[in-house]
Amino acid sequence: MSNFFGELKRRNVFRVALLYLVGSWLVLQVGEILFEALALPDWSLRFILAALLLGFPIALVFSWVYELTPDGIKREKDVDRSQSVTHETSRKLDLAVIAVVLVGLAVVLGDRFLAPADTAADEKAVPSSTPDAVEQDAALPAEPTPGKNEVSPAPAPDDSAPAQSVAVLPFTTRSTDPEDEFFADGMHDDLLTQLAKIGALKVISRTSVMEYKETTKKVPEIADELNVATVVEGGVQRAGSRVRINAQLIDADTDQHLWAETFDRELTAQNIFDIQTEIATAIAEALQATLTPEEETRIGRKLTDNLEAWEAYRRGLRLLNGISPDDYQRALLEAQRALELDPDFAAAYSVVARVHMARFWFFGSDPADRRKAWAAIEEGRRIAPESPELDIAEAYYHYWGHLAYDEA
């Protein structure tokens, strides 16, 4: 056994392993910064991590089988021991490890101390609004009297946080049923989308708020980290054919409610979209954000009249956040299911298009996938020419399909 470990040391396998791990750490640090700047999907970094993990044993095998010589890379068994330069290679590997660590520290420190003060509140353009399925048993926030609508004056402007800025925290659910968790995440995503349509509001992106799911931090602390003046908390509870949704808008400075409401409704697609519209409108009013007629029309837009179709669509969006061909295939099936239930569900075509573009980008660059994506976009445009969901899908088509950055 000692001879085996001695041989591992002589062939620099340990040093290669260390260099690979340190190098992977540096790649992930740089990737986290660049992926945000380039508005790449949430799962892009996980894809890189998976590739690095797969490459680790390959690197170890390569360092065991091959040796770097003055004449190039040769199989270790073909190198005369008297001519071996592994001792020189070990010194070079040590220097490489030190260099990578120094570069990594420079990247981390540079990102922390040279970034603008409001980096935490920057919108992260995420291609998917899919929720992450995280199980939780957190209780719903304190509820106001049902039917009582409490509206307080908007908060005064803050030196750092714009008065009309808001972060919508992930909704909670009392149920342990994964489907109810998924439903709550879908409501949260759609409310974020509704609020983002109001130009007067500064709405923090889903990517930034999702880290506060199941958090124990207080609202003022969260607001300070996200640089917002207000925070929305909410909860969802389903019981048979009814749904109960409560939401509250909280002033970050005083930790007091500016608005709160509880909605008890029959569980239908119409009611789901109506509740989202009512919440978005109430928040805008509480923050004294004036809606244009166009914005009022946009936030009142419903995607479908079919609840099952909406749920299938939401599942498809969630699966788009995966990284495997199986995830994309299941997302496509969910989108097709949504279209079977509602052939005029234009947003479902955006999921179809994005599935094909993900396949094109990550798995083979088959032109047939690109053509199918464009066909889905055109079919969706026939139903809803101004659909923002199709705008996102078309952005992927231009970016992943043609590297046409301006169009994307």
Question: How would you portray this structure in words?
Answer:
By secondary structure, the protein is of the alpha/beta class. 54% of the residues lie in helices and 12% in strands. The protein contains 14 helices and 9 strands. Strands 3, 4, 5, 6, 7, 8 and 9 form a 7-stranded mixed beta sheet that branches. The chain is globular and about 75 Å long. Mean pLDDT is 79; it is low at 115-158.
Kindly summarize this structure in a few lines.
54% of the residues lie in helices and 12% in strands. With 408 residues, the chain is α/β, with parallel strands linked by helices.
Keywords:
alpha/beta; 12% strand; 408 residues; 9 strands; globular; 7-stranded mixed beta sheet; two-stranded antiparallel ribbon; 14 helices
> Judging from the principal axes of the Cα atoms, what is the shape?
globular
Question: Given the helix and strand composition, which structural class is it?
Answer: alpha/beta
Question: Kindly state the mean pLDDT as a whole number?
Answer: 79
Helical content (DSSP H or I, runs of 4+): 40-55%
Strand tally = 9
How are the secondary structure elements laid out?
Blueprint: H1 2-10, H2 13-37, H3 43-65, E1 66-69, E2 72-75, H4 86-114, E3 150-151, E4 165-168, E5 172-173, H5 178-196, E6 202-203, H6 206-209, H7 219-226, E7 230-239, E8 242-251, E9 256-266, H8 269-286, H9 293-299, H10 307-319, H11 325-341, H12 346-362, H13 367-383, H14 388-402
Helix pairs in contact: 2-3, 2-4, 5-8, 10-11, 11-12, 12-13, 12-14, 13-14
